[in-house]
UniProtKB/TrEMBL annotation, chains A, B:
Protein name per its UniProtKB record: PX domain-containing protein
One MF term in the entry's GO annotations: phosphatidylinositol binding
GO biological process: cleavage furrow formation; endocytosis; endosomal transport; plasma membrane tubulation; protein transport
Keywords: Protein transport, Transport
The organism of origin for this protein: Eptatretus burgeri
Length: 324, 324
């Protein structure tokens, strides 16, 4: 699958993560709160067959931005939708930067295409099979009118009928929360260590090996000016060769990360993007169990019928099953 | 050849180099000035056959100190006598430090034994074949009474009869001076680069590789607490193994200099010691050519006979030949 950026794009100053925070609120029209209380029903029967067409689609960055917004709205309550590759802080040549961002956007879309629900969604297929402007605009309007977004996504989900206890749900929330925190911590540690190691190799070690090589070559020249009548040429040549070899080794050290760590670092960056989504998803799940406890109290206080409460209970179960 | 230190020794606070500076003055009783002006004649016919006896001699550091003083007095005007291995600035464990100093003293004496004039000298043989205290003291007294020291060493030298021009002497002084400066500069550059490289490897790189390994092992634990029902054990074990291997590689990096650079650094230290002697030797040689020019003026001013001047000239030639 290939998604190409057509031209340099204008960068946004707000981060996708901040957007995630705002979009995934439990409350508001499409919030989990309204879903749990049955404030919206949907008769949508979405079903899209995934097709790998190998079509090359040329998208501008603003298309990605729009697409990310739709995915976040529609699936963000249950599926981790990683943020778009961000503007880099450290200054790079424009070309190198654009190339890197293109590659990260391709990784981003490839990751999403692996998710069965996302890959089969209409909006994903629309984005992937962009052909002409007219078709694009029609699909865009349709996607923007979609009502099955936010917490309401759970309305279109079919889950096993077995009821789950609040204890079971909460214990798996805790377990998963702990896993996410440890994964996040681990990836942060590994990333920072590789960053330091990379700096040591491309900075110190590479520079020092090249400096050592340079000094050896210079030192060889000292011998050639010694006025010594013996066989000096072989020594000078050997030292020059050794010096050159050390310079080459230094150069290999400076080039090494490009061929080794960089792809690993890109993978960690992807993981980081995915992990950043879970706290908000977990927050929704926790809000759901809290709501259920609240409903229990309402039933005791005769403010809610048992049947009403059981409907909420079923909706919470659907969320729990959806959360895996 | 083996020279062993019998016990921990008291360190001197003054450096050997300072001593060299004071000892190698052109002036004073045994200075080059007095030699050139024929203020001392000697009928000594020193001749010592070098014998490799493989005798192990146990010397205290003060014996080395005394021996170094004798060599400097006797040969310092013409042969580079490197300073004794110094007290280290950076704190080390006493044992490690003593072991290193012992090894450096052995290198020091091995280097001197390679010089034909020094190796054949009475004082060297005396030092090398130390047996009992009585013999030692007799030889010590004899060496201390030696009159063929300082500039007077040139009195016992036989050189080719061909006269040398002041221009020839001065040009080879300049050439050698340039070589010494460039060697010194080169060795300083190489030493400082290796020092930095060593720090990068044993510090940064070793630490970061070990940290990376540690984080991988920790990250493996995150997976084992994930609650994921699939095959996690193989992944955890692979990550633990990889982490351990990175720790091991980090350890190898920290141990590396001991097995590689250290012996090279010791050799550079030896070179440094030898090179430090040349400026003073060159100074003596330059003083000699200056004296010769002064004598030329004296002859013109009728303050010196041509015969007297030619005697000085011969002595300067001997020095030039001795300087190689």
């Amino acid at each position: 699958m290939d998604a190409q950026m057509a031209a340099p794009v204008t960068m946004r100053s707000t981060s996708s993560m901040m957007k995630t925070l705002n979009r995934l609120s439990c409350y508001g029209k499409h919030g989990v709160e309204n879903y749990l209380m049955g404030k919206c029903t949907s008769n949508s029967q979405e079903m899209v067959i995934i097709k790998d067409t190998n079509v090359q689609v040329g998208h501008r960055f603003k298309h990605f931005d729009w697409f990310h917004d739709r995915l976040l709205e529609k699936f963000g309550a249950v599926i981790p939708i990683p943020g778009l590759p961000e503007k880099q802080i450290t200054g790079r040549f424009e070309f190198e930067f654009i190339e890197q961002r293109c590659s990260r956007l391709q990784t981003w879309i490839a990751r999403l295409s692996q998710h069965p629900v996302i890959a089969q969604s209409e909006v994903f297929q629309h984005f992937l099979h962009f052909t002409d402007e007219k078709v694009w605009k029609a699909g865009k309007r349709k996607a923007e009118k979609d009502e099955v977004i936010g917490g309401f996504i759970f309305n279109v989900m079919l889950t096993p009928p077995t009821e789950l206890s609040v204890q079971t749900i909460e214990s798996s929330q805790d377990e998963f929360g702990c896993f996410v925190r440890r994964m996040d911590e681990g990836i942060r540690n590994i990333t920072s260590t590789i960053h330091d190691f990379d700096k040591s190799c491309t900075g110190g070690v590479a520079r020092e090996l090249q400096r050592f090589g340079k000094h050896l070559v210079e030192h060889a020249e000292a011998f050639s000016c010694s006025g010594y009548l013996g066989e000096v040429n072989a020594l000078v040549m050997a030292m020059q060769h050794t010096g050159k070899t050390f310079k080459d080794i230094g150069f290999l050290f400076s080039e090494h990360p490009k061929k080794d760590w960089n792809s690993f670092m890109e993978l960690l960056l992807e993981y980081k993007g995915l992990l950043a989504c879970f706290p908000h998803i977990l927050q929704n799940h926790k809000a759901a169990t809290e709501k259920l406890k609240e409903c229990d109290k309402c039933v005791t206080a005769n403010k809610m019928t048992l049947l009403e409460k059981e409907t909420v209970n079923k909706r919470v179960d659907i969320m729990a099953y959806a959360g895996g």
